[in-house]
């Protein structure tokens, strides 16, 4: 499954899921939340964009 397919299948993440995804990439969830804001942080496509996908 590609990141685009995943984002379509799961358009929203829980806070816990988003935090885990960011941590799994070796990054700080607080930084992602600060850059994206609370709504975009849990929007899969936005978070993937922030992660560089």
Topology record:
Blueprint: H1 3-9, H2 15-24, H3 29-41, H4 44-51
Helix pairs in contact: 2-3, 3-4
List keywords for this structure.
72% helix, mainly alpha, 53 residues
Can you walk me through this structure?
The structure is a single chain. The chain has one domain. 72% of the residues lie in helices and 0% in strands. It contains four helices and no strands. The chain has helices at 3-9, 15-24, 29-41, 44-51. Helix 2 packs antiparallel against helix 3 and helix 3 runs antiparallel to helix 4. It is globular, with a radius of gyration of 10 Å. The two termini are 13 Å apart. The model has no long low-confidence stretch (mean pLDDT 96).
Low-confidence stretches: none
Order of helices and strands: HHHH
Major β-sheet, in short?
none
Mean pLDDT: 96
The fraction of residues assigned to DSSP E strands is under 5%
**What structural class results from the helix and strand content?**
mainly alpha
Task: Kindly state the number of beta strands.
Answer: 0
Distance between the termini: 13 Å
What overall form do the CA principal axes indicate? globular
Number of separate helices: 4
**Overall tally of domains:** 1
Radius of gyration: 10 Å
- The percentage helix is over 70%
